[in-house]
Each structure stands twice: as structure tokens, then as C-alpha cells.
Amino acid sequence: MEEKGFRVVLDLGYGTLPRLLELLGSVVGDGIDAVVITHRHPDHMIDLHGLFRARWFGRRGAPSIPLYSPPGVLERLATLEEGDAEAVRQVFDWRETPSGRIALGPLHLETWALPHFVPNVGVRLSCADFTLAYTGDTGLDPTLADLGRDADLYIVEATSRDQQPDTPPSPTAKPLLLSAREAGRAATAAGAHRLMLTHFWPGNDREQSRAEAAAEFGGEILLAAEGLVVPLGTQPRADPPRPAHFPR
């Protein structure tokens, strides 16, 4: 995400680093002003290790990059470096995700704890012109309405395990991942203007996911895809429908 030349990276899962470096035009990650990681599962942070290596061997001694995350992310990264946490801290200036609102360059950063198998935060980045919200991975929670309130773009995980009949059942009594239909409900409850579905279960029909979300959300629905660029704050916003409460 970029605003006034300030660049924030949200999650770095499998295969994201090469595309990021290509966009930056830098093989060592020059131009990244901050990184925000929602939780320590590899599909959300494993390419942070590649970025560490690019900076450690290509820009050692450069100012460290602010890294916001719940506890556990830096420790997992250090295990990939034989436990060398000191080297990791020279590249990344780790800061626990805030419980309140803080300034991040020209943006404001807020995070909310959301239910998952490990500590996970929803992320909200805003400025005068737009608001972007992102769930990371989560189960249903009333906090989702606060996280995405009036967001220009609400990025919501839509794993939809139910699309695959042979998928093992959730290991927890309460599912800790959303369906596309639940993602649509969350966006409607938040009064979001646009919804982007992401975190698709392998083999899922993404157009089916869009249709299921559309049954619950009347605004524009985007599907996360490689190379997709989404302008923010450049168009007038229509008022979305507002429910009385978040559906439980």
C-alpha cells in the first residue's frame, strides 16, 4: 500500500517477495517504509525471511525497517537464522501491534485482536482520503464490524472450507476461518464500500465465492489476484447499506 510515497507492506506469504521487489525496482527491498504482519503462520510471513536476507546481505548497516506484528513473528523468523535474533533485529525494528491508534508516516495504524489458531490482528490503515482494513485470518467476531467500519476497501479472508467436501473438519469447536458468505456479512455489518475476498482454500471456485459473498453484501466485490492494483480514495463513494448489528 502506498500513500504520498510512503509504502507499507501487509503480510508476506509464500511467493510474494519476488513480486514485491519487482514493484519496488530494487532487489534489496529499498523503498519499504514499514511492514505489518497479522500473525506468525507461514502463509502470512514466510517471505519476511527472504526480505531479511536481501537486506542483511545487500544493505547491512542501513536503517532498520519498522516491523509491526503480534508476538511470535520475530521469534519464528529468528529460528530460520539458527536463532540469531540479533541479526534479525538489525534489519527489522520490531514493534508489537498497537492497541490504540498511532501515526505511521502519512497514515494512521490501528489493530484489533481477532480469533485464530495463533494470535492474529486485523489491520486498519487510514488517512484523510481513504481507509483500508484487512482481517488477516479470523473466525466470526463482532469486532470485524469495528475493524472495517466505513472502509473504502475491506480485505476479508474467505477460506470457505465448505467448498471442498473432503476437507477435514475444523480442529476447534468454533471455526476460526471465514466462509465467503460470512465475509460478505462482515463487510455489510461494517458498512464497507468495497470488499476484497482473499485467502482462498486450494481448489475453491473463486467466482462461487464471489457469488456467495454477493448474497450478503451489495457493494463491489473484488477477488485478490497476483498483480491486481486497486486505487484508493480516487472516486466518490456511494453509501453502502447499514445493518442494525453485526450478525453472530
What does this entry look like structurally?
The longest helix is centred in the N-terminal third of the chain and has 12 residues, at 47-58. The chain folds into 2 domains: 1-100, Ribonuclease Z/Hydroxyacylglutathione hydrolase-like (Metallo-beta-lactamase, Chain A, 4-Layer Sandwich), CATH 3.60.15.10; 130-231, Ribonuclease Z/Hydroxyacylglutathione hydrolase-like (Metallo-beta-lactamase, Chain A), CATH 3.60.15.10. Strand 11 (194-198), helix 8 (206-214) and strand 12 form a beta-alpha-beta unit. It has helices spanning 16-24, 42-45, 47-58, 73-79, 85-91, 143-147, 180-190, 206-214; strands at residues 2-3, 6-10, 34-36, 65-69, 92-96, 102-104, 107-114, 120-126, 131-134, 153-157, 194-198, 220-223. By secondary structure, it is of the alpha/beta class. The strands form 2 sheets. Strands 6-7-8-9-10-11-12 form a 7-stranded mixed beta sheet. A 5-stranded mixed beta sheet has the order 1-2-3-4-5. It has 8 helices and 12 strands. Helix 4 crosses helix 5 and helix 7 packs across helix 8.
Output the CATH topology of the largest domain.
Metallo-beta-lactamase, Chain A
Total beta-strand segments = 12
- Dominant shape: globular
How is the biggest beta sheet arranged? 7 strands, mixed
* Rg, alpha carbons: 18 Å
- Spatial strand order of the main sheet: 6-7-8-9-10-11-12
- Helix percentage: 25-40%
Reported CATH architecture of the largest domain: 4-Layer Sandwich
Which structural class matches the secondary elements? alpha/beta
Average pLDDT level = 93
CATH superfamily of the largest domain: Ribonuclease Z/Hydroxyacylglutathione hydrolase-like
For the terminal residues, how far apart are their CA atoms?
31 Å
Please mark out the parts with pLDDT under 50 across 5 or more consecutive residues, or reply none.
Answer: 238-248
Q: Any idea of the CATH class of the largest domain?
A: Alpha Beta
Amount of beta strand:
15-25%
Tally of alpha and pi helices: 8
Order of helices and strands: EEHEHHEHHEEEEEHEHEHE
List the domain count as a whole number.
2
